[in-house]
Design goal:
The complex is a heterodimer of chains A (107) and B (230). Chain A has 107 residues and is mainly α. Chain A has 4 helices and no strands. Classes of the chains: A mainly alpha (107), B mainly alpha (230).
């Protein structure tokens, strides 16, 4: 399979799985949702955000220069700014700008 | 017409966020080698912000179908619960129902979850239009991002950090509001452990399994600490 065809397949998979998740409760609404599934729905989102933070930083090397400095500095900026202002868009824009400046001009 | 206007006004708070995050997605995809048509297709047919950001990485890395299925389930699991809480409002939405369900993103849910509709508007049509306006902002932003990324007067190297920043900000937000930090810490440390053990190309599936297992084991402890914020 060509790379494009395989990518198209993956896009279709993401689309179908997302649609199924959104539609499942409407397709099965007569049955009661198991308590375990409800529990997972409550705790998974927070855990998965943590997983995605690590996923985003997976290729950052702490053992070679610049030792993850741009990621650490920009990441801490996002945490601090967000804790202060609680504005998700502002946190993203400032963090991304800081990272771009750090990687392009400083390190 | 009144319904259209009311829906547009309702959707305004989402407009700036979706256009800017959409532009970020368009540029990110472009830099990973996925141009206009890919961006358009993803924003039209997947229409899930975080998943599209993560999806670009999965596409570029040639991830396995199983990895893509599991990642989509985990990243989008929360949508299941948006749908559950909208069952009552969407149940009798008739011809609008399929699109209402398809387009139930975090932001659309946040606008419609209280179930209120402005007086004098047709409820199903109002919700349909709010959903449609929101997706049009997302599609518009991602298409703009895709088209401008080649002609911007500055280098977009490092723009991929917008995804990292999105998740760090979401993590901070949820840390501040959650009463119980066990799920967040489990996600962070469980994944870190799997990254160290399996390496950057193969840790995602083990991490998802480990997280689910640990949260299952912690169930009594977390449930005992009253309600968990999700």
């Amino acid at each position: 399979m060509s790379t494009s065809a395989y990518s198209a397949l993956l896009v279709a998979v993401m689309s179908i799985v997302t649609i199924l998740l959104r539609a499942a409760p409407f397709l099965a609404f007569k049955k009661k949702i198991p308590a375990y599934v409800v529990y997972l729905g409550q705790v998974l989102p927070a855990a998965i955000i943590g997983m995605l933070v690590i996923y985003c930083l997976k290729d950052t090397s702490l053992l070679s220069a610049p030792f993850g400095a741009p990621e650490i500095i920009a990441g801490l900026l996002v945490v601090g700014l967000h804790a202060w202002k609680r504005n998700i868009l502002l946190s993203i824009l400032a963090g991304t700008a800081a990272y771009m400046i750090l990687t392009q001009l400083v390190f | 017409m009144k319904t259209v206007k009311a829906a547009f006004v309702k959707s305004l708070p989402v407009m700036a966020g979706y256009i800017i995050l959409g532009i970020g997605f368009g540029i990110l995809a472009h830099n990973a080698g996925y141009g206009f048509l890919w961006v358009l297709a993803m924003s039209l047919f997947i229409y899930a912000g975080s998943m599209q950001y993560v999806g670009v990485g999965l596409l570029a890395g040639g991830a396995s179908v199983l990895t893509v299925i599991l990642t989509t389930v985990m990243v989008n699991a929360r949508h299941l619960f948006y749908s559950i809480s909208m069952l009552r409002h969407y149940r009798n939405a008739g011809r609008y129902k399929p699109y209402l369900i398809f387009s139930l993103t975090d932001e659309t849910y946040s606008l419609l979850c209280d179930g209120k509709v402005p007086e004098g508007t047709e409820p199903d049509r109002f919700r349909f239009l709010v959903s449609l306006f929101n997706q049009s902002y997302w599609v518009l932003g991602s298409v703009i991002g895709s088209l401008v990324s080649g002609i911007l007067p500055f280098s977009t190297a490092g723009i991929e950090f917008s995804m990292t920043a999105l998740f760090i900000a979401s993590f901070t937000e949820q840390w501040i509001t959650a009463k119980d930090h066990i799920p967040a810490v489990t996600g962070l440390l469980g994944t870190l452990l799997c990254l160290i053990a399996f390496g950057p190309d193969r840790f995602l599936i083990p991490a998802m399994l480990l997280i689910t297992l640990l949260l299952t084991l912690f169930r009594n402890r977390i449930s005992a600490g009253k309600k968990v914020d999700a």
